[in-house]
Write a structure and sequence with these properties.
77% helix; mainly alpha; 1% strand; single chain; Amino acid/polyamine transporter I; 552 residues; two-stranded antiparallel sheet
Length: 552
Amino acid sequence: MSALVLMAIAIIAFFIAYKTYGTFLAKELELDDSRITPAHTMNDGVDYVPAKAPVLLGHHFASIAGAAPIIGPVTAALFGWIPAFLWIVLGGIFFGAVHDFTSIVASIRHKGKSIGVIIEKNMGDTGKKLFNIFAWLTLVLVIAAFANVVANTFVAVPEAGTASLLFIAIAVFYGFVVYRNNFPVIIGTVIGVALLFLAIWVGVMFPLALSKEAWIMLMLAYVVVASLAPVWILLQPRDYLNSFLLYGLIGGAVIGLFIYNPTVELTAYGGFNTKLGWMFPVLFVTVACGAISGFHSLVASGTTAKQIDKESDAKFIGYGGMLIESTLAVVALITAIMLSQVDYNAFMVAEAGKAAPGPVALFSTGVAGFLEKLGIPFTTGKTFTSLVVSAFALTTLDTATRLGRYVFQEYFEKAAAAKGKSESAMTKFGTNPIVATLVTVVVSGWMAMGSYSAIWPVFGAANQLLAALALLAVSVWLAKLGKKNGYVKYPMFFMFAVTLTALGQLIYKNVIGGQILLSVVAIALFILAVILAIFATKTLKQATNDGKGISA
């Protein structure tokens, strides 16, 4: 079977979904450009800064599309291409894109605040506190996991380390020139993207070879600065410029794929029980960001909603951005399933005394083959792909740190005001951005120095459970407004079933394996999620009794 058939089906399905289901959701959410967004009403030049839709899509997409939509589908191919492909396409349309879109809109209607504040408004302060603890612990896992991803990539491809550091400098230059000196955006973009490619060339010529531990420490120092800097000077311009690299990668890979026309070699169905575990729940947790990701809700309600220029942009950025990521996930899946089982195992199965190349290496090799059909030398294509993946893993890393700061600060905000002077010292401490950033980074760094192989599965389960909680928050908000919520409620039920099962299995595995810290974190996440679900159920029943709640 030709892999082109799968790619074509996915692209057509995503296009139709955007035009139909995305439009349906926009009508249900009553998007109205006459409402002034928080980016304008609360513009502070640091976090709340209005951005044009293409620029904000660049930030949003760069933040959500790290290494996970590549690692997940490639790994999940072990279950067979049929179940992995179906979950990416259907999950992206009816779960992930809905999750991202509604999270942005709910946040806009709550002054650009996080999902935790939305829970507070609809479920009370206790609900907010529980969610913020859950979200913060998840973000700590995200930072620890991606610090490992970035460090491992930079060690394996030192050219990527040099280029990524230069990317940061270029972003700062772009931010000052375009945002502070009103330089034309189009001309600035052309110059900025050209400089990115120059940085890639410099990276190839002057690779920076450091140890994994040195890279982790350097990255943690960087994210402290990135978390505190105004969004216009680093976060917004860097993500915007970097997004062109990923757009180019996806576009080049898709075009090259159509020319290459590979045949699907890997099995269509690998069995319900594989080396990864049972298809339910492991497949859904493994594919992760390629279909739905709770981390997206934190980006959507953390940085994106604070920069939305007008409400109608939410469909383009939220629903459209997720479908682009699912397209990347399909490309990643194809790079795996075009291989024979023997070749797939060569990338994914470690040999005695030797680590496996892994899913990023498999993806880079596959995409390099596609790009080669466009006249790009194989080695150059593979290096470019590795650089792009590492750039976006780093983007996820600094965005997660900033979100960790937001969530940490929000935990203390209301309690402070309510409890008065006696709590003022604690409040000032908890809401201080420097303190919030340092606490987040120190705990993450401690975990990052541990076992990556143990961190990633817990991160995956926590991340998907966070998606269930975000859908829960939106469901309660819509019910209390007297609006239909079936399009978020039913995906929520499914995600709770999947993730609580997966997290329970991981708790057992980590306890048996002696991973005490990760076991404690996983148990805490499980308990918090169950309590929040109980809180939400009571709130939904109350809304129904009041004659306001509408279930579907």
